[in-house]
């Protein structure tokens, strides 16, 4: 099958390097003999125009040069389209790319794209909004909101906002309903994950798979702040979270369970992020997996 690629470049994601990126795209794709076009992403996140281009120009691959938020907006716009999604990671965290073992080096990411190995991955819907890998309520969402207001991007800025918010952190009250059973808990944050990490190799859901038809739910409960820090560092980074058990969750600092759908009541209006982008919160969230949502270009396993 003859391939035709559109490269979507986010001019503001990550920390820079766009001139180098575009030069390498032009040189290496030309050497492959693959017709291509470079298009810049837009601030509104409106990519409906791609559907017409895919049909009229027989586009086979949409390659997103940006971060998780851009991937999410583009992939969400192209559900049910017969097109492969590629990623050249250029964001601050690159959680989806790292979970799929896509290199953050431009040359290696392009090599994966040219290889053309595409496999379906899951996504999910939260109150009608699309998420390709991770959304969160509470602490990490507040970090995302504050990070979005910074002029400087990158890991150093993210770490700064994490420290500031750790000093200020307070728990929120949530009611979680899973498979007809409900419980109320006070928690610093809840992560709903299709990917195994926040990004930057920071593991949040060690059992998560991009294509198992399940969401991984992580609830970091109220505890003394020193234990909160220790719990996150020890349990999350080492992948030692406990399985969800109704009889014992009060004894654990971190709950971890898998499901294909759930409802979260959010009476304290904890902040929300979707794929790292700050979003308007709600008093209730209905969340459901989308199996085989789109085809992602990724390394051969």
Q: Can you lay out the helices and strands and say which pair or pack?
A:
Elements: E1 5-9, H1 18-32, E2 36-40, H2 49-57, E3 61-66, H3 68-77, E4 84-89, H4 95-99, H5 106-115, E5 118-126, E6 129-131, E7 134-138, H6 139-148, H7 155-168, E8 172-178, E9 181-193, E10 197-199, E11 202-203, E12 215-221, H8 225-236, E13 242-243, E14 254-259, E15 261-265, E16 272-274, E17 277-279, E18 284-297
Helix pairs in contact: 1-5, 6-7
Description:
With 301 residues, the chain is of the alpha+beta class. It folds into 2 domains: 5-122, Probable inorganic polyphosphate/atp-NAD kinase, domain 1 (Rossmann fold), CATH 3.40.50.10330; 129-290, Tumour Suppressor Smad4 (Sandwich). The protein is built from 8 helices and 18 strands. The chain has a 16-stranded mixed beta sheet that branches. Strands 10-11 form a two-stranded antiparallel ribbon. Strand 16 and strand 17 form a beta hairpin. Helix 6 (139-148) crosses helix 7. The longest helix has 15 residues, at 18-32. The radius of gyration is 19 Å and the shape is globular. The two termini are 22 Å apart. Residues 239-250 have low confidence and may be disordered.
């Amino acid at each position: 099958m003859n391939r035709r690629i559109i490269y979507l470049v986010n001019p503001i994601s990550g920390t820079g390097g766009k001139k180098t990126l575009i030069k390498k795209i032009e040189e290496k794709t030309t050497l492959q003999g693959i017709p291509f076009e470079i298009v810049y992403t837009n601030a509104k996140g409106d990519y409906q125009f791609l559907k017409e281009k895919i049909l009229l120009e027989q586009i086979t691959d949409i390659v997103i040069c940006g971060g998780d938020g851009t991937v999410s907006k583009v992939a969400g716009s192209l559900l049910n389209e017969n097109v492969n999604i590629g990623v050249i990671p250029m964001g601050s965290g690159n959680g989806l790319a790292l979970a799929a073992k896509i290199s953050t080096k431009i040359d290696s990411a392009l090599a994966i794209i040219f290889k053309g190995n595409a496999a379906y991955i899951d996504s999910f819907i939260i109150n009608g909004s699309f998420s390709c890998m991770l959304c969160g309520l509470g602490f990490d969402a507040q970090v995302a909101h504050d990070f979005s207001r910074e002029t400087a991007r990158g890991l150093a800025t993210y770490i700064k906002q994490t420290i500031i918010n750790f000093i200020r952190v307070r728990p929120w009250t949530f009611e979680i309903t899973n498979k007809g059973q409900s419980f109320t808990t006070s928690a610093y944050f809840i992560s709903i994950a299709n990917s195994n990490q926040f990004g930057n190799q920071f593991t949040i859901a060690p059992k998560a798979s991009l294509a198992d038809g399940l969401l991984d739910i992580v609830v970091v409960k109220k505890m003394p702040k020193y234990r909160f820090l220790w719990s996150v560092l020890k349990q999350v980074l080492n992948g030692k979270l406990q399985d969800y058990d109704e009889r014992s969750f009060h004894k654990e600092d971190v709950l971890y369970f898998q499901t294909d759908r759930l409802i979260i009541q959010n009476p304290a209006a904890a902040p929300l992020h979707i794929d790292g982008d700050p979003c308007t919160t709600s008093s209730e969230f209905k969340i459901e997996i989308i199996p085989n949502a789109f085809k992602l270009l990724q390394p051969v396993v």
